[in-house]
Amino acid sequence: MEKKFKEILKHYLTGKSTPLQDKVIEDFIYNMQTTNKSSNDLITDQKLKQKIRLSILKKIQPRVRKKRKYVFLKSAFVVLLIGLSISAIVNYSQQPLNYTTYLESKTITLSDGSFVELYPHSSLEVNKQYNKQNRSLSLKGKAFFKVTPNKELAFLVKGQRLTTKVLGTSFLLDEQSQQNSVKVTTGKVEVATQNQRVVLTKDQSVYLYSDGLFKYSADNQIISSTSDALLMNKASYQLWSTTLEKEFKVKIQTNKAFVKQLRITADYRDSKLIDILDSFCFIHNLSYSIKNNIITIN
């Protein structure tokens, strides 16, 4: 009974109720007004709420009734519905919007004009203050976002492990695959975990591994972070090699004794490994080879 009752109220609020359902509910509101019953009476009186449910459900039957017209304020009816509703639909109109997909994708246009393609087996929650006080979303699964620019309100997507913040761009957030990732199509985004932040631009991506976030270029090469550890000033070869090994998940080796005595001054932030190696070897008249993530400097 409560399920049917909730369904009727929900349909009325969203404009999906039948003319007969509209008529019964509006008749009931009129009676409430003429008997001076308030919404507070409904909230506190459980027997009265049950009687109301039974009355409305009983009347919604396929039959012809003489039309009557009553004038009432719709805002007052919203207050009344809040009183009638059980806890699952209290403040229904102020609850976050929720979207869930199963076997097929769903296309969603948000109130600011932003576009979301929600992939299968995913869910999206839109904050109830969206496009008013914030542009915050929560995602479980995978979705593509094309964001309408708004310099005042950043677009924020909170995944289960990744948080993506943008002002206006398009990107794909995937937490369904083995490695969670964000891929940027246009614009600029900031992706963060509890311990790391990475900024991506067009055609760049970031993947979350067990040892942190790793940024990739369009040609699928790792790009170093913006850590101050990569801003080197007379750094030893040992520090240089171990820092790059951690950044790029590689092993660096050399059999040249003089290389191990070198001091390196350079800014390797936000750079590809191949660019770093090319620069290093050019300056010191060296060469290198890469095999199975092992770099040998000759």
Automatic annotation (TrEMBL):
The chain crosses the membrane at residues 71-90. The keyword Endoplasmic reticulum does not apply. Residues 104-190 form the FecR protein domain. It holds the Pfam family FecR. GO terms for molecular function: sigma factor antagonist activity. Keywords: Membrane, Transmembrane, Transmembrane helix. Residues 242-297 form the Protein FecR C-terminal domain. The keyword Membrane applies. PANTHER family: PERIPLASMIC SIGNAL SENSOR AND SIGMA FACTOR ACTIVATOR FECR-RELATED (PTHR30273), PROTEIN FECR (PTHR30273:SF2). This is DUF4974 domain-containing protein.
